[in-house]
Structure formats: C-alpha cells, structure tokens
Amino acid sequence: MPLFLATFTTLLAIINPFEALPVYLGFAARLDDKARRSLAFRSCLYALMLMFFFLIFGTLLLKIFGVPLAMVRIAGGIILTRLGFELFSSPSSVGGGAAPHSGGSAEQSDAAFVPLAMPIMFGPGAMATILGMTSQVKNSASELTGLIAVSAALVATMAVTYLILSSAKRLQQQLGPRGIDAATRIVGFFVAAMGIGMAFDGVIEALQMHGMTSLH
What is the dihedral of CA 169, 47, 121, 161, to 10 degrees? Predict the structure, then answer.
C-alpha cells in the first residue's frame, strides 16, 4: 500500500490532468461527444501502455542504447518547449464555427499519441518516477507484490486522468471559448517554461555525470 500510494500520488502530480486539460480541449474543440471520449480514452490508453512498456523494459532499453536519463530529460524538455510555444502562439479559436465531426482521421489519432499521450502524460518525469519505483521493487524482498502495487498505481492514475478529461465539455461550457483560449495560452507558456527547466536540469545532470561541474 505505501508503494502504491507513493507511485500514484507522484505520477498524478507529474501528469497533472488539469494541466493537460487545455491541450486536450484544443484538439477536441471541434469533435462531437463520442469523438471527445474516444480521444480521451485513446490518449490515456496509449500513455498507460507506454508506462507498462517502460516499467518492464525501460531500464534495459536505456542500458542497450547507452542513453542516460539526463539525455531523456533534455530531449523531453525540447519537445515540451516546442509544444508550449505552439500553444502560446496558436491562432485564437474564438469565433470558430466549424461543425463537430467524428474523430476517425489520422490527425486526431496522431493527437491521441503525440502530444497527449507523449510527452504530456508520459514524459521524462513519468519515466524517472517509474524507473525509481522499479529500482525499489527490484531491491525489495517481495518483488512480485511490489510490481503489482506499481501496476495498480499506473492504472489508477490513468483512470483518474480519463475521468477528468472526459468531463472537459462541462468545464468548456462554463469557461466559454475565450476562457479556453486564454487557458490554453497560459498553459502553453508554463509548458514551455517546464520544458526549458527540464532540459536545463538534464544538461546540469549530464555535466555532473562527466565531472564537468560540481553543482548540486
């Protein structure tokens, strides 16, 4: 139970579904109810699959490709920074009168995976958390029980995220188009700032690994 709670609360704080909400609404603005729920479900499902894949093979993949976690932070930070600038400088959606359509296009399918599932939901922070919890499990006496607890925490985290995203329409109706547009730009600014900070932390960590700085 302590491992479950630690993993669940940490991942939920890192993913922060309310932070992903404006990004999701930006892609779901012209979709009907069924397509919105499909987009939310697929993005959460993709993120959950990535989490389980990284839970099982993450440490092995980093060792095989010789990629330290610092480089993952740098790459993820660059991706988040680019996404943040796009959200902040995107044309206003206020006044858009396009009719809703179904979400069967390749564009919406891509949006469910990139950027919603990765890197918004599953990014370097989630990778680092899963790697840390996996190392604790492997060093414990009850490895199977620990893996079950971590797996349950992953499912619970994405279930909560889906519930929040699936209720986005009510929040959109309360905020209105201008409120959503403003929230999207504000979140875009902070997503870019988070990306820059993540990349900066990765650079510092990489410099420390190579003994080029004594910063802590």
Answer: 40
Instruction: With beta carbons less than 8 A apart as the criterion, state whether 51 and 148 touch.
Output: no
For the record, the structure tokens of 99 come out as 């009719």
- Cross-strand partners of 101: 31
How is the chain split into domains, by residue range?
2-209
SS3 for 76-138 is HHHHHHHHHHHHHHCCCCCCCCCCCECCCCHHHHHHHHHHHHHHHHCCHHHHHHHHHHHHHHH
Residue 97 has a pLDDT of: 37
Please give the Cα distance from 113 to 109 (Å, whole number).
7
- Vertex 190 angle, CA 202 and 160, to 5°: 90
* Ramachandran quadrant class, 167 (left: phi over 0; alpha: psi -120 to 50; beta: rest): alpha
- Which segment of 122-131, 170-179, 187-196 scores lowest on mean pLDDT? 170-179
Contact (Cβ atoms closer than 8 angstroms) between residue 189 and residue 63: no
Res. 94: pLDDT tops 70: no
| Separation CA 172–CA 43 (nearest Å) | 19
Tokens of 62: 């980093």
